[in-house]
């Protein structure tokens, strides 16, 4: 198939609706989908042919050795069919991207240099610049689909010639038809080892064994994820049949602990842990315990000339970090960029697809690419996505993401590997930094995190800029300082001002004066909510606009725990008015709120049927305007049920979920962690909800720090009312967002730095509540305090049993339908109703409605 290739020189400063970075599964899907919706797309890739690492192929390849080849062929046909709207730009390496407009319509300038070739080394793909001519692509939006590369863990001898990454060995086979060696050992963890070993065996290599460090039978703990993805199981079974046919041994809880060279006479080389001089002549394999520590006496030597080793993949997120996209530590320990249900990052105009959002395989990448293409086209050319297509893709994304989570849990990287390397083992091969050098700067110079170690000992400062050693360095530093790796550790090793090596001439060209980027100014009305003046009764108030912060996480801002409109139905019972609920969500968005939390803090979900509860979420998602968060509550008595609600939220298109601890009994910390770990498998960011009064389980700061360190939660809705906890949580878990969860301490927590408020009373007073929160967050107490004093007689109902009834009564008085509650909640007593009425009417008289 002939694919039209644009002349890069003719595209300098060209204006596109969409620039897609990467022509792998996610990038191809995004480009073709966006073009089919009418967008003009620049598809930029460093490789000479499309397909990425997964579909790497030779000219004339018939796809016999590739999985998903028909999907690839359909995408190529789409690339050809939409050649009038897709400029395919192979051989261009992106080294920097900048924003040229921070307000709608957004703008981005992608800086690239031409590459002569893509060299698959033993470790990573490196791109060689052909010349110093810089090519610039301007676009309104960007889809980042830069994929991932092999994750490596150092061991004695890993720098020897003949030691390949598993992906490198496969790339040679797919791209060049060349076997990496004759007698090959395959080691590491993850199902990718099966694919590599099967491909090598089919190509005629003598595969001496596959040595899996983990215990894949852990998959039996995830029957639902497996059942929803039968094709994945069949694919793995096919690889195993190939290995069986070629009589390749498959050993679990076993790995290669050292590689050996043919000659061991060169002392200098041996001093760097290479176990000799020359190419690989053999490896030592050993059995591992559950923490991946070597079982004493289990070591044995195997002869081979090649070792292919891989411990999963590391997402390539240099570009998202350059642009300021929020990140999180994924369940497999990787640093990944955060995307919402539209694949939109926390930076407006920047969409993410594929492995940059979390490693999940080619099918998930294609699905996310299609969603990103649909929504990017809508944002640029106004092509409204087909709701049925979005639902179908979202449903498939949730199923695939659930499987990916199960995969990561079945093949984790255990911490015991750090104890298997000695001081002479090289960790950073570019700068030849050993494990001993890292330990020395920790013990002698007091370095306690990856950034400090990087500055003192220089791991990650060489040509690859930490791509190879970054993860290992972070884990090693954490192990040597007695803690788990954090998001900050990973970020410090992944942040690169220049994404790829470039000639100085390209830097000089980029430094020349260009058109000035559009400057954004803080919107004072959005920051201060229109400066509502609580001291001027009856004065009309400006309409607050929803915040358009370029880096707002989905759980930041004012998120309303929505009240449900219930009306008498034909069955004689109260029925949910879903049209009324949709209208209420729209009204909250129009009045400046940043999102809603359906089935959340008000507790009305406890009286809903499963069908009603699911429909509340889908109604909120379908109603939500661009940039408006839907973060459902997914609390349930059992972890399995809570996970299923989280999966339903993901399928509906929610951005995150909020989760109470298990509360059917007084759960201990181990049970709490297990509960959150199960729900995290759904793949959405989880906001913990600490309500020790109703659940009788207190998520104390130490327990929250443990949950965050494991990557299970991104934030906590803190309802204890103890403002002091926010400071303690910040000390123990610096990356964990503390959200205000109690209305009557909103000002105090905003001043303490809480980035969000999951609130109840904005159901009745959204404009005033938003103005209060924004003023307090900005330190404008002159505006915030009068508002707070005026609203506090109502806000303090948050800590009372009749909170929901009070909110609905205020809504009725303010002209919004609140209505009744389902039993067991009963109407307010006359005394309570009078208290709410007086406080509400006073607030309305002061112009806060």
Automatic annotation (TrEMBL):
<dbReference type="InterPro" id="IPR036188">
    <property type="entry name" value="FAD/NAD-bd_sf"/>
</dbReference>
<dbReference type="InterPro" id="IPR007419">
    <property type="entry name" value="BFD-like_2Fe2S-bd_dom"/>
</dbReference>
<comment type="similarity">
    <text>In the N-terminal section; belongs to the NADH:flavin oxidoreductase/NADH oxidase family.</text>
</comment>
<dbReference type="InterPro" id="IPR002220">
    <property type="entry name" value="DapA-like"/>
</dbReference>
<keyword id="KW-0560">Oxidoreductase</keyword>
<feature type="domain" description="BFD-like [2Fe-2S]-binding">
    <location>
        <begin position="426"/>
        <end position="473"/>
    </location>
</feature>
<feature type="region of interest" description="Disordered">
    <location>
        <begin position="508"/>
        <end position="553"/>
    </location>
</feature>
<protein>
    <recommendedName>
        <fullName>Dihydrodipicolinate synthase</fullName>
    </recommendedName>
</protein>
<dbReference type="InterPro" id="IPR041854">
    <property type="entry name" value="BFD-like_2Fe2S-bd_dom_sf"/>
</dbReference>
<dbReference type="Pfam" id="PF00701">
    <property type="entry name" value="DHDPS"/>
</dbReference>
<dbReference type="GO" id="GO:0016491">
    <property type="term" value="F:oxidoreductase activity"/>
</dbReference>
<dbReference type="InterPro" id="IPR051691">
    <property type="entry name" value="Metab_Enz_Cyan_OpOx_G3PDH"/>
</dbReference>
<dbReference type="Pfam" id="PF04324">
    <property type="entry name" value="Fer2_BFD"/>
</dbReference>
<dbReference type="Pfam" id="PF07992">
    <property type="entry name" value="Pyr_redox_2"/>
</dbReference>
<keyword id="KW-0456">Lyase</keyword>
<dbReference type="InterPro" id="IPR023753">
    <property type="entry name" value="FAD/NAD-binding_dom"/>
</dbReference>
<dbReference type="GO" id="GO:0016829">
    <property type="term" value="F:lyase activity"/>
</dbReference>
<feature type="domain" description="FAD/NAD(P)-binding">
    <location>
        <begin position="16"/>
        <end position="368"/>
    </location>
</feature>
<feature type="compositionally biased region" description="Low complexity">
    <location>
        <begin position="508"/>
        <end position="519"/>
    </location>
</feature>
<dbReference type="InterPro" id="IPR013785">
    <property type="entry name" value="Aldolase_TIM"/>
</dbReference>
């Amino acid at each position: 198939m002939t694919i039209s290739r644009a002349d890069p020189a003719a595209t300098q400063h060209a204006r596109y609706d969409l620039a897609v970075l990467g022509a792998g599964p996610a990038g191809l899907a995004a480009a073709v989908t966006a073009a089919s919706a009418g967008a003009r797309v620049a598809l930029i890739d460093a490789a000479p042919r499309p397909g990425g690492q997964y579909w790497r192929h030779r000219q004339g390849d018939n796809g016999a050795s590739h999985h998903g080849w028909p999907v690839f062929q359909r995408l190529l046909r789409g690339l050809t069919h939409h050649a009038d709207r897709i400029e395919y730009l192979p051989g261009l390496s992106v080294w920097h991207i900048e924003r040229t407009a921070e307000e709608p319509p957004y703008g981005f300038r992608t800086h690239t240099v031409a590459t002569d070739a893509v060299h698959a080394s033993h470790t990573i793909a490196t791109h060689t610049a052909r010349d110093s001519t810089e090519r610039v692509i301007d676009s309104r939006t960007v889809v980042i689909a830069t994929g991932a590369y092999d994750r490596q863990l150092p061991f004695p001898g890993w720098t020897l010639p003949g030691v390949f990454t598993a992906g490198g060995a496969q790339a040679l086979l797919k791209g060049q038809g060349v076997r990496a060696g004759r007698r090959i050992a395959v080691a590491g963890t993850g199902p990718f080892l099966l694919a590599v070993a099967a491909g090598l065996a089919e190509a005629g290599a003598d595969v001496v064994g596959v040595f899996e460090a983990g215990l894949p039978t852990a998959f039996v703990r995830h029957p639902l994820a497996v059942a929803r993805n039968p094709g994945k199981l069949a694919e793995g079974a096919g690889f195993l049949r190939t290995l069986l046919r070629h009589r390749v041994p498959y050993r679990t809880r076993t790995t290669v602990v050292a590689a050996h060279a043919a000659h061991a006479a060169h002392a200098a080389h041996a001093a760097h842990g290479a176990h000799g001089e020359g190419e690989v002549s053999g490896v030592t394999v050993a059995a591992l315990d559950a923490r991946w520590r070597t079982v004493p006496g289990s070591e044995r030597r195997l002869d081979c000339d090649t070792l292919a080793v891989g411990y999963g993949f590391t997402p390539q997120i240099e570009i998202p970090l350059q642009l300021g996209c929020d990140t999180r530590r994924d369940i497999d320990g990787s640093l990944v960029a955060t995307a919402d249900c539209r694949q939109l990052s926390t930076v407006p105009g920047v969409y993410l697809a594929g492995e940059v959002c979390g490693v999940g395989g080619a099918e998930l990448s294609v699905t996310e690419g299609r969603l990103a293409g649909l929504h990017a086209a809508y944002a640029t050319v106004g092509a409204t996505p087909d709701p049925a297509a979005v639902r179908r893709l979202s449903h498939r994304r949730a199923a695939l993401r659930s499987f990916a989570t199960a995969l990561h849990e079945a093949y984790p990287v255990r911490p015991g590997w750090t104890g298997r390397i000695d001081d002479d083992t090289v960790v950073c091969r570019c700068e030849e930094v050993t494990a001993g050098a890292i330990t020395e700067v920790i013990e002698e110079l007091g370095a306690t995190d990856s950034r400090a170690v990087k500055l003192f000992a220089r791991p990650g400062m060489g040509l690859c800029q930490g791509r190879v050693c970054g993860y290992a360095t972070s884990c090693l530093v954490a192990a040597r300082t007695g803690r788990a790796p954090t998001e900050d550790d990973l970020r410090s090793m992944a942040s690169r001002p220049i994404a790829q090596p470039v000639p100085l001439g390209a830097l000089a060209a980029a430094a020349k004066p260009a058109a000035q980027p559009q400057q954004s100014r803080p919107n004072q009305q959005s920051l201060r909510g229109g400066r509502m003046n609580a001291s001027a009764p009856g004065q009309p108030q400006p309409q607050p606009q929803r915040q358009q912060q370029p880096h707002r996480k989905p759980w930041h801002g004012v998120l309303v725990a929505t009240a449900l409109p219930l009306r008498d139905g034909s069955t004689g019972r109260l029925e949910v008015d879903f049209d009324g609920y949709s209208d209420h969500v729209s009204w909250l968005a129009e009045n400046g709120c940043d999102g809603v939390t359906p089935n959340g803090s008000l507790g009305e979900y406890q009286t809903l049927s499963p069908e009603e509860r699911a429909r509340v979420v889908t109604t909120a998602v379908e109603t939500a305007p661009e940039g408006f968060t839907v973060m459902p509550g997914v609390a349930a008595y059992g972890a399995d049920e809570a996970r299923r609600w989280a999966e339903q939220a993901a399928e509906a298109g929610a951005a995150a979920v909020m989760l109470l601890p298990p509360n059917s009994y007084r759960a201990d910390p181990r049970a709490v962690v297990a509960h959150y770990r199960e729900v995290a498998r759904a793949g959405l960011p989880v906001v913990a909800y600490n309500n020790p009064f109703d659940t009788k389980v207190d998520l104390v700061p130490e327990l929250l720090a443990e949950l965050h360190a494991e990557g299970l939660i991104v934030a906590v809705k803190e309802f204890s009312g103890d403002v002091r906890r926010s400071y303690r949580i910040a000390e123990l878990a610096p990356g964990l967002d503390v959200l205000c969860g109690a209305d009557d301490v909103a000002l105090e927590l905003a001043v303490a730095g809480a980035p969000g408020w999951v609130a109840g009373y904005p159901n009745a007073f959204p404009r005033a509540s938003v103005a209060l929160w924004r003023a307090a967050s900005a330190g404008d107490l002159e505006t915030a305090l009068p508002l707070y004093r005026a609203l506090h007689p109502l806000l303090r109902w948050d800590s009372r049993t009749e909170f929901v009834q009070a909110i609905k009564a205020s809504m009725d008085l303010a002209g919004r339908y609140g209505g009744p509650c389902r039993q067991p909640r009963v109407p307010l007593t006359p005394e309570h109703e009078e208290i709410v009425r007086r406080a509400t009417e006073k607030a309305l008289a002061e112009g806060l409605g």
